[in-house]
Amino acid sequence: MTRALRTCIAAALAGSLWTGGVMAQDRMPEIPADKLTDAQRRASEEFLAARKVPVFGPFVPLLRSPQLMLNASSMGLYLRYNSVIPLKLSELVILITAREYSQQLEWHIHQPIALKAGLDPAIVEAIAEGRRPDAMPEEEALVYAFSTELHHNKSVSDRTYAAAVARFGEQGAIDLAGINGYYTLLAMTMNMARTALPAGAKPGLPELIR
To answer: Which of 113, 155, 170, 189 is deepest in the core (most CB within 10 A)?
Structure first.
């Protein structure tokens, strides 16, 4: 192998890795308005009409597939604002998912929302550090167990499932799975696309040694 080839391979590998907890250059940044396809332009307009804000965050890379972006946005609106799961618990699920995927932008957006919704800062800190919080109220402990079992075991135990249905109903169990799955989709998309944090923002998640 030539020295030049080794240099190229090393550069490619370096470009695919996290550096100091920050992802490398954004692979799918915002598309300039004059470069949008007709389908992307229509999807951007529909997004703005539904959410009252321009395409942002995970929807920037998703716009490369306009219909997927719109469908994802619609699902997100339901899960955020119409789910039977209370906002504080929904945000707990999102933070767990962001930590599972070390997704800095997902954490950056939702950590302050979770705190404002009333989630204990000690719980937020523990999740950021990749450990189970020392003490949680019953509902938070149930949602934590449900979500971490889904992420780690790809399933939910009979005991945890029964507790979730008893507390939130079958719709609630589905909504909990949906929130976990939806924010996993967004985390995977942003990790693949290397979606950047806003200018000047610092990563909120420490790098974990697994």
So the answer is: 189
For residue 124, CA distances in Å to 2, 31, 77, 161 come to 49, 34, 23, 24
pLDDT class for 20, splitting at 50, 70, 90?
Answer: very low
* Whether residue 110 is found in the same domain as residue 122: yes
Is 3 a member of any domain? no
| Per-residue tokens: 131 | 């450990």
- 51-78 pLDDT, tens digit per residue, is 999 999 999 999 999 999 999 999 999 9
Threshold 0.85, pTM exceeds: yes
With beta carbons less than 8 A apart as the criterion, state whether 104 and 203 touch: yes
Domain limits at 57?
26-82
Classify residue 208: in a domain, yes or no: no
Residues 61 and 141 in one domain: no
In a domain, 13, yes or no: no
Would you state the pLDDT for residue 24?
65
Q: Do 117 and 182 belong together in one domain?
A: yes
